[in-house]
Structures are given as structure tokens and as C-alpha cells.
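Render this sequence as a predicted structure.
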Amino acid sequence: MKEWMQNYGYLLGVLAVVIVLFVVVLYFAARAYSKHMNAFKKEEAELKRLTALKEKYRPFDEETIKNAPEEEILEGVALVYQVYLQKKDDMEKEFLLLKEEQQYIYVLDVFVSDGSLKTFFKDNADILRSRIVPALKLVGLAEEAERAEKIRKMYDVTEEEISFSEKTIDEEDEFFTENNLLSRIKLKGAEYIKENISLLKL
């Protein structure tokens, strides 16, 4: 045994290293799988939620809107528009054919989904960015519209006198967060939709 240890003892060290590496790999693989499954479950739950919301609001009418929770009305109506647009060959062209009020409701929901001024202006094309200011005004958020206008101008290539400022964007986002703007857009949007159902129907 002593002779074997002298000649082959290093194999025990190699085996120990292999076992440790195997355990580490197994641990990270388990974590990755768990993370993947959690993400999958969240995506699945979100898909089910959106499907239920789509069925609830398509087509939306006075009774549906009257009985719906105010915090979901904006998203529900915008989802009806989204489903409608996705069936078209040219979504952008069809979007432009919607009534202005319908476009603004859609843009407000995109803004809420994006969660911030920075994300909204960074991730969306001008067809949506150019409509957020009148959309905010539509639902009675005039001060917020003025603040958003400062950011819109930064992303407008025709505005040569306006400099891009990350600091200003962060400050405006902070103001919007402190004043709970996303929730206010949902509620003000719901209020507008309730008062203008016939105008907003497809």
C-alpha cells in the first residue's frame, strides 16, 4: 500500500480535483436550469395574462370598460390595437391610418410598458417618440408633456440647437418616478377611454 501510494498517490489528488470540478459544474448547471425555468414560468404566466386580457377587451364596449379595473384598461385597449396591427402586412402604414386618439392611447401604453423616459426614447422609433407629447396632453398631463418635450427634442435630428444630455434625461426620469407618473398615465388613460369609447373603437 505504501509503495502504491508512492507511485500512484497523485491519482488521488487528480480524482479529488475532478470530483470538486464535477460538483462545481453540477452546481452551476442546476442554478442555470433553475433560472431558466423561473424565466420560462414568468414568460408563460405573462403570455397567459396577455391572452386573457386580449379576449376580455376584444372587441371592447361600454360594458367591458365600465366593469374593468382602471389600472388595466389602457393596456387592454392598446392590446386590441396591437393585435389588429400585427395582422396587417405593413404595421406602420396601418398605425398611421388609426385615428390620432387611438395612436396616442397605443403610445401611452408603450411608454408605460417601457417604464421610463430613457427607455422609451432609446428603444422606439420616431413614429412613437413624436407622439408621446400630444398623447400625454390628450389625457390631461400637460406638465409631464412639457417635460417629455425636452427629451423628445434631444432625439429629433432636426433640432440643431438642442444638445443631448444624459443628466437631463435622468433628472426627468427621477421626477416622473417621484410623481408616480406610470400609474397616473394608466388612471388618466382609463378615464379618457371611459369618456370616449365610441371614438376609440376600431
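Summary. The first helix runs from residue 2 to 57. The chain is about 80% helix and 0% strand.
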